[in-house]
Design a protein that fits this description.
Layout lengths: L7 H19 L3 H5 L1 H17 L4
């Protein structure tokens, strides 16, 4: 398996989810704080799949 760069939309979704997850952990934002860990994991998984699978 050869790593490749993720598509731009996958990268944006991963980074956005990660930032919201971190922000929700440190600041009290009603919906985001409840799911901060989930958002962080979704962002990480999106970036991991984007680099592992070709065309994602």
């Amino acid at each position: 398996m050869k790593p490749s760069a993720p598509q731009k939309i996958t990268w944006i979704i991963g980074i956005l989810c990660g930032i919201l997850g971190i922000l929700g952990h440190f600041a009290q934002i009603q919906f985001i704080s409840e799911y901060s860990f989930t958002l962080l994991m979704v962002g990480f998984i999106a970036l991991a799949l984007g680099t592992s699978l070709k065309g994602v």
